Fold this sequence. Notes:
The structure holds three protein chains of three kinds.
Chain A: H1 6-33, E1 42-47, H2 53-69, E2 76-81, H3 87-98, E3 103-108, H4 116-127, E4 131-135, H5 141-144, E5 150-153, H6 156-173, E6 179-185, H7 191-204, E7 208-215, H8 220-233, E8 237-242, H9 247-258, E9 265-269, H10 273-280, E10 286-289, H11 292-308, H12 311-317, E11 331-333, E12 336-340, H13 354-361, E13 365-369, H14 370-379
Parallel strand pairs in A: 1-2, 1-3, 3-4, 4-5, 5-11, 6-7, 6-8, 8-9, 9-10, 12-13
Antiparallel strand pairs in A: 10-12
Chain B: H1 16-35, H2 40-43, H3 45-71, H4 79-97, H5 99-103, H6 110-136, H7 142-168, E1 176-177, H8 181-188, H9 191-210, H10 212-222, H11 224-229, H12 234-260, E2 262-263, H13 272-282, H14 294-314, H15 319-346, H16 353-375, H17 377-402
Antiparallel strand pairs in B: 1-2
Helix pairs in contact in B: 1-14, 3-9, 3-12, 3-13, 3-14, 4-6, 4-7, 4-12, 6-12, 8-12, 9-10, 10-12, 13-14, 14-15, 16-17
Chain C: E1 8-19, E2 22-33, E3 37-41, H1 48-55, E4 63-68, E5 71-72, H2 78-83, E6 86-89, H3 101-105, H4 120-133, H5 149-162, E7 167-171, H6 179-195, E8 198-202, H7 206-212, E9 215-220, E10 223-229, H8 235-243, E11 261-271, E12 279-289, E13 293-297, H9 304-312, E14 320-325, E15 328-329, H10 335-340, E16 343-346, H11 350-353, H12 361-366, E17 374-375, E18 378-379, H13 381-395, H14 411-423, E19 429-433, H15 441-456, E20 460-464, H16 468-474, E21 477-482, E22 485-491, H17 497-505
Parallel strand pairs in C: 3-8, 3-9, 6-7, 7-8, 13-20, 13-21, 16-19, 19-20
Antiparallel strand pairs in C: 1-2, 1-4, 4-5, 9-10, 11-12, 11-14, 14-15, 17-18, 21-22
Helix pairs in contact in C: 4-5, 8-17, 13-14
Amino acid sequence: MLFQNRFSSTSLPLVACLLATLAIGCGEQKKQSASTATSGIRRFIFITNGDDPFWDACNAGLIEGATQQNLEAKGLRVVMEKNNGTAQGQIEKLRQFVSQSDIAGVAISVIQAENEAIAEAMKTLATKGVHVITVDSDVNREKFRDARRWYIGTDNITGGRLLGTAAAKILQSRGKTTGGYVQFAGFTDNDNARARMNGFKDSIGEGYHQIDRMSDEMDLSKARDNVRTALVNHPDLTALVGIWAYNAPAIAEVVRDRKVRDRTTIVTFDAQAAAIEQMNDGGIDAMVVQNPFEMGKQTVRLLAAMQTGDTKTVQEMFPDASKSDKPDGDIYTTGLRLIVPDPTADTDDSPLKAEDFTAIFGDTIELLPLSEFRQWLATYGLSSS
Amino acid sequence: MPHPEASPKISSLLRSSEWALVLAILLAVIATAVADANHSYWFEPFESIRDIARNTALLGIFALGATVVIIAGGIDLSAGSMIALSGTTCATTMLALAPLQMMGMKPVGPLVVTIACIASLLVGFLVGTLHTWLITSIRLPPFIATLATLVGLRSFARALCESSTAALTPTKSALINVSDPLFKTVRENVSIPVAVFGVLALITWLILTRTVLGRHIHALGGNEQAARLAGIRTDNVQWFAYCFGAMTAALAGLFYVANESVAAPVNQGRGHELNAIAAAVVGGCSLAGGVGTVPGTVLGAIFLRVVIDAVSKIIKTGADVYEGLIVGIVVVIAVTFAQIGEMAQGGRRLLPGGLGLCAIPTLAILCGAIATMTAGARAGMIATGVAVAFLSFVRLWESRRTA
Amino acid sequence: MDHIDTPHAVVMQGITKRFPGVTALENVTIEVERGKLHAICGENGAGKSTLMKILSGIYPPDEGLLLVNGVEVRFTGTRHAEQAGVAIIHQELALVEDLSVAANVFLGREKRTSLGLLDEQAMTAECGRLLVSLECHVSPRARTGNLRVGDQQLIEIAKALSLNASIVVMDEPTSALTENESVRLERTISRLLAHGTTILYISHKMDEVFRLADRITVLRDGRHIKTVNRIETTPGEVTGWMVGREIASRQFDTPRVRGPKLLEINNLRVPWPEHPRGYRLSEISLDLHAGEILGVAGLMGAGRTELLETIFGAIEPTWTGTILLQGKPVRFRHPREACAAHVAMVTEDRKRLGLFPDLDVAGNVSLCSLTEALRGGFLSRAREESLVAAPLRDTGVKTPGPHASITALSGGNQQKCIIGRWLLTKPSLLLLDDPTRGIDVGAKAELYSLIDRLCRDGLGVILTSSELPELLALADRIIVLSEGRLIAEFSRAQATEQKIMEAATGS
């Protein structure tokens, strides 16, 4: 256990061997993927906030975008890097990319909008000439707008309002004009979570009051525990709102387990595969679905355009960019969809009608019954969105 | 058993095992520079140097604390949680003293920052005292006492964060953002944490090698009973060691907050105590106590961070998936081969009996799995084959030698 | 086991065993008749335990033959010996405290059911039977750790019996027993003998030996001295053989000058709650003057170390009585306090309690006086070297240099370093606990001169030792402890090895 001279003669070759093995191994890997930096291939990196099936759909979009934009011919590749759910993880990754010289562009779903360090790291990357954009979750636009050039994503406030409107309509159709609801998210101070929750609260109407916002820090078992706690603490809970993708199946399962489905209304964001099944079984009343696939596709389109100097495409995507009276010109919105259960023999049609929504939200919103949504998924080989 | 290198001669700057570490670091850097397809080390060294320097300093600060505790014969598993608690204490203090500025993301002023930092270090002192009390008066084994604080302190930090934000801000939150320009300066200037680390290393080295207390720490770790019988107040020496460990972790926590611009007790520093212990052990500390040096730990921290950076540079995407695996392997190799000489002398075998036979396929499959995941099926099969051949050779050689 | 018809259950012929640095046994031959109790007597270090460990398979002899029931055997381990019918009951009990009695009795040889699972019922029943036959009233299911030592000993015996051992070795079995338990044990022994078991019984208690033994073998310094039938000899003769070496009188000619009274102990009693007799030391009174060496003799477990530890403050001060140091009452709670009062103690077992293997020679010697090696508040290598130069020279340590590793030195030199360490604290009272254990003859002589010199310089020394000639050579007075009590006191003129041994063995 005490260090002796042996270390000098035996461990050195071993450490060298270990790294040499890695080197050889990764040399092999590169040969297989047929791209080496010596031939100048540069990378676009997509940094997620955590590990969630939502990002798998986005990844599919990235791949589709890569094909459409013909990245290979342009000497580019796109890769998704999944973060571990912490701010430090994103900061470390961004800093690591600063020290790697083959990065052409970075798209990031920022996990903490207020976090200065993340914004600074993004700026450092930008000063190096790397194109930096945010996707799905932006930095605080008031403070750190200059940390990124463009934002692709959903307007989460609109999304929240959409769900709130839908929830109000469903509750009214069930004869519940008042009641309390709880919102469940990963981090309640995450920018997109907050936007959705606030949007929901604004639009559901004064008849209903928000009892609590519960966070589970991306811990799936805690997500379930939160639902159980909410049901126990507030026995007259009228509605449960799932803000992040994995909250939906958590809520639906626990509610079914507790056999309180008949007196609760469940509305959720995003469509994990499990959530889709649950809506099919009648476990969820409405889903507002983003389009991560589209986000991925547009990310690649934008980054490729920025990299190749294609100002025309950029202009197409952000027509209001230089207009001083349109402060949101740097946002590209990927659409929202409201998914409702299919009518069955036992139930009436859903109380939600497309006309009502286009009236309020314009035609950026699409209302789809579940079966149509599933068809759409199938065309792209996705199981979730 | 002879220990020719037991006390470092001042005339030779480092022990031979530490020169070996220096060489290992250089080899790792060279290997990375070559194996990295971008040759980032070659073309753009400064960014990487900055990164590695920053991370080494952050790790090194509380690795020094771990070193002192280990040399004193103890162990501190709670450093990562102490980091979280320290950061939370600092942010909470700033929030309590200047709530409007904190919430508005405005500067809180150097006085408030100073008070907050002192509060964090004070909490470190209290935790160190708690550890010592549990270990010397309640007679808990250090492993158990610091295991309890490993889980307890983080939970306490979370509760503190949530209740203080609930009381002082409109909403309860699991984190507190910190945007004071002092912290920003620390974040942007790598030289600050590096300088602090350097000064702390110098102080620690002085204490350990040139003070009576340091000599007592070595004595305590080397032979606790004999130390007591030689008139050393072992309880007080342990008090110093554990407080030093906790306070260096507290100091590191302040740098973590600066680095991430947030105090997030849920996950901040989670698991990092093991990196500190690994740095100390790779640098020559013995977990039995009584052995260890500051230069060794410093080199160990550098080596660990260089290896982690190498992994990121070579495995370009998804490197953090493999990081833990590589670090674990490196630590095992580093310590195993330090013991090989003793094992050979003592007639102990690397692969004895039935256990050794089972170990051969286990290790071979591990090698093969890693190779397959990083380089494909063909490399995986080659790696498995090579491992089986090599280990079988070792076993045959051993059984012939002792037969 | 094959039985060749022979009256001897065990024959050990020409057994020699060497350990690094010492020959434990030299050409020892004994023959043990079947069905008899054969006692093995000798001083500490005579080789009794080593001989019995060879018999029970713990280690092999370097030279010599072992015949069990007439058949030559070379045991490869204790299991092998057990299979040959030899079982040993150690002085330190080898029981697993958290397991039940039955589990301990069958440890390593558990009974199994036809399915291969543990057959608790069978083991409990069998164990119960054994315990009853030993007059032991504990339940086979009881937790072993909760039992009294006397019962634990019987469980060891039960273990041996369950092996159907025909040869049982008992190593000082009554050292931890009360009167009643010892009597009970003796009844058990009689039953075993009646059953035909051969018993080898290591003991130094003459009364026991002379009650139980049929034959007695005396070992001394690893050699066989004598084997006689018990009826043909007396306790006095036996103790004579145990110590009967040439009293190599390495006397110091000039008598030492006695100074003022340094230490006075009155009615010291150190409690020992777990033990049947209740005390480690009882009614100890002594005094010591400066310039005097007081020798403390006694067998292992008599309380010599405890006496020194109590004076030094190395144990919790729960003792009663008074200790006066230079006339002032003291009650040290920590060795630091003793150190500050100029009391020094060189512990027994230097490896476990005295040396710091990771510090070099200078580090080991300077440890108690580091404040004198400071320059500007920091330890100065130069000052440390000059600080330790004097004690290293005065004690005559042979070392390549002050920065050599302490573990590279010989035992004698290591001990000198430790003495040097304490000399630097300028003690007035020096306590030496078995300081020459494990040290070769030459180094011993040097240490004797050193101790003598220190005394002439005015130190008061209390010296414990297992070696009687050492005490006779060095001490001005010798007290003898036996089982925690002060049995006898002799002046140098009166003392002889025989008398001391008789007092120590309680005969």
